[in-house]
Each structure stands twice: as structure tokens, then as C-alpha cells.
Amino acid sequence: MRRLATAVSAVMLALAATAAPAAAAPDDLPFASAVFRATHNSYSGNADGAKGSITSQLDNGVRFLEFDIHDNGYATTGDYGVGHSSPGDLVDHSGNPASNNLRPWLQTVAAWSAAHPGHAPLLVMLDLKDDLTDNTSYAAGDLAALNAELAGVFGTRLVRAQDVPGALGTVGSLRGRVITLLSGHAGTRSAYKADSGADPSVAINSRGQVVEVHDSGAGALWYWSGTYGPDGRVSWLRHGRYDSGTTPAVALNDSGLLVEVHKSQNASTLWYRVGQLTADGDITWSASRQYDTGILPSIAFASPAGNTLKEIHRSQSQNQNWFWDAVLDPAAGTVTWNSATHAKTADPRFTTAASTSGSMRVTVSTGADGAAPATTLRYATDRIGATRVRYQQTAFDEFQAGDSALLAEGAIFYASVASNRSFITASRNAGKVVRGWDFDSASLATAPPANYPATNQPYATWYADLLSAAGAVQ
């Protein structure tokens, strides 16, 4: 015991030396050099550990909160569930929201932040306990829905990852702000950073609305929808699965109506769907209907202001193109195909991977992108080079010990169990913002310390002494 006390004292002296500049001017301290009080499984309060309510934790200087979330029941509740192994598991409702839904817990944090506008930057971490990539739409609780919930609750106080090109600023520049971080399920975190697919097709209209469709490479058809911005970048708003098939193509008119065509994934039959873009960027789809046989379908509106279409595809049995004249019926969500003019054609298929409206041009492709694989979906416009088709980067993405190169790429936030002291020390020395979870003993302290030593015992004397020695900011 005496040896442990001596070792802890030595660590505290080292922490005090490390924290000396912070104590002099905490607001001028780079965010990556600051240390903050942090709790592990913050929602569990006194049900697991001795943390108290969320408000109590914040009142006592905690600036890192963790919520474990599940997507079970999202279609019913319209929200994610808070809990350890399942929604409600180890959740302490005393002094906290009565609901297990995530939104009221986030609103509790937002209300406290609004009432304490001078607080040090507050980090809210979501530990994804389920795979959100199998949520096939916004309505089913995909990552676009999670983005919307974070943005809706925290509003202008939210620090968006996409607005941080490199390191975060100083502590002072981030006072009153909330940072959100995705942890947990690695596949979901990877999908937040990049998407994969095959045979992408794209369309843009005069309103700057953009629709991309692609197949998964395994028979599933997916779409992205977004808007072309003043800087030439596309903000991708919605993502979802809409059918099964291969080699899709899409046409979009200025009313936000679209017609998608594709080949069956297991036969040489051609199918179409009609869609309507909604105000929030989602797509309302009609039923899928067969219109012919063949391969490699392509389609275009004769005029972006109208509903007349032309489709060109290749015969499945010979190198011969065929065309259809067609008319979209917006009210019925159907297309009438003119069999009287249906015939062979020497015209080439329409370009499916590029679309132009006025001066706006969007192209799509697949290819390796940094640490992302060769199947990564990419887009380019008349104003920017190729970059990833992906969710808006509202939250930051955490890298954990043992994660992939994709998750390491550009990561600011690193994490491991607190007992992995070598990882924490090396990551801090590399300039990363580091979390160590289950930090429940002074013997786990490092020099330099984890930025977020996430404990179940935030009021223990040893923890208070360590954080004080480290110059913890609040």
C-alpha cells in the first residue's frame, strides 16, 4: 500500500508539472492539451458507480458524458434507447429523465449548457451498441436521423466536425459549445466516414437537388439525396435502400420528380420506380414495375421542366441498343411506355455517371480514397475534385485501440480502456485527445494524463486530487 501511495504521489507531481501552463491561462490552452472531468456510462448514475444525475455531474465540473444507445424500437418510438445491454439497462432515472429515449437526455444536457453559457467545452459521446448500418432509411433510424437529432437538440451550440478542418481551437474559443462523438460499433463508425457500392448513377436539376443511386455489389439498391451548395459541394441529406437489382440509372426533373431504372439482380428483366423528393431531401418511392427485358438501362428527361422521358438499354442477347419513349404520370407514380415507337437504335446509352444543369455538374465514381477501399463512392462537381459521398460530418468519429486505418484517418479523438496506459501515453504524446474508460483507480494515471479519464467515481477523493493536480478545466 505504501508503494502504491508513493507511486500515486509521483504521478500527481508529474501531472502538476504537466498542468502548470494550463493553470496559468486555461482559456489559452489548446483543446488537445486540456484535461476534463469525465464519467463512464454517465446515464447509470448511482445504479452503477456513484455518479449522481446528469445535472449533478455537470454542476460538479464533469465535461464529458457518455450515453450508450440502441436502435431497438426506433420505428416505434422515433428515437434511440439509452441503456447498457439494452434500453433501460442500468439506467438511473433519479434526477434524470423518466424516459429511456435518448432525446430527453440530450435535452437535459442542452438545457444545462444554455443556463451556463461560459462552461468549458462539453463533450457528449454516444456509444453505439447496435449496428446502425442495417437501418435502411431515415425513418428507421439511420445515421442521418442521428445527425438530425444532435443538430436539433444542440442547435448553434454544436461544434460540427465538418467545420473543423484540423485540430480544435483553444479552450476559450470553445466555451459554451457542445461537441458530439461517435464511439462503439466500428462498422457504423466506418459507414459514417465513407460508403461503398458499385455502378453509381447521378442526376441534378436546376434547383440544385441531387440524387445518386448505386447497387451494393450484392443485389441491394441504395440512394443518396442532397443539395448542391454555393461552394460546389453536395450536402448529402438522406440515404436509404429502395429496391433490389443491379446497374441502376436515374433521371430527375425540376419538380423534384425522378425515374429510376435497373436490371434485376438475378434475371435480364428491366424495372423502374418513380420517386418524389420531399422538402427535407427524402424520397417517396412508388412500387417497382417491370417494363422490358435487357441490360444496362439508362434514362433521361427530354426537358427538365417536363415529364417526357427517353430510355435506352442494351439487348441481353446481342450488342444492340433499344429505346423507349415514355411519359411520367406524377399523380399515379407510374410511367407509360410507348410501344408504338419502341425500336432498335444506333444512339448510345445516356451517360449515367454524370449530370449537368446549367453551370452545375456532378459526376460519381468508385475508387480508393485515402484509407477507404476501391469500392468507395465518390463525387466531383464543376467546382471541386473527387471526394466521398457520405453523411454530413455532424459528430466526430472516435478511433479506438485496434481500429482500422479508415477510423484512424484524420481522427482527433482516441480511446482505450484506462488500463492500456501505453496507448494513452503514446496517443497524448502524438497530440490526440484521449479518453480512458473505467478509470477507477489512481494507479491508472499516466503522464501526460488522458484528456478524459472517464470514471465511475467522480466524487472520490483520489479522483478529485488527480484532476486538480492535472489542472482540469471546467
Folded structure, characterized:
- With 474 residues, this protein is of the alpha/beta class.
- 19% of the residues lie in helices and 34% in strands.
- Strand 17 (308-314) and strand 18 (321-329) form a beta hairpin.
- Helix 1 packs across helix 9 and helix 4 packs parallel to helix 5.
- The longest helix has 23 residues, at 2-24.
- The two termini are 32 Å apart.
- It is elongated and about 85 Å long.
What's the SSE blueprint?
Elements: H1 2-24, E1 37-39, H2 54-59, E2 62-70, H3 74-77, E3 81-82, H4 102-115, E4 122-128, H5 143-154, E5 158-159, E6 178-184, H6 186-193, E7 198-204, E8 209-215, E9 220-228, E10 234-244, E11 246-252, E12 257-263, E13 269-277, E14 283-285, E15 289-293, E16 295-301, E17 308-314, E18 321-329, E19 334-337, E20 343-345, E21 354-357, E22 360-366, E23 377-381, E24 387-388, E25 396-397, E26 399-400, H7 405-408, E27 413-417, H8 421-429, E28 433-437, E29 452-455, H9 461-469
Parallel strand pairs: 1-2, 1-29, 2-4, 4-6, 5-6, 6-25, 26-27, 27-28, 28-29
Antiparallel strand pairs: 2-3, 7-8, 8-9, 9-10, 11-12, 12-13, 13-14, 13-15, 16-17, 17-18, 18-19, 18-20, 21-22, 22-23, 23-24
Helix pairs in contact: 1-9, 4-5
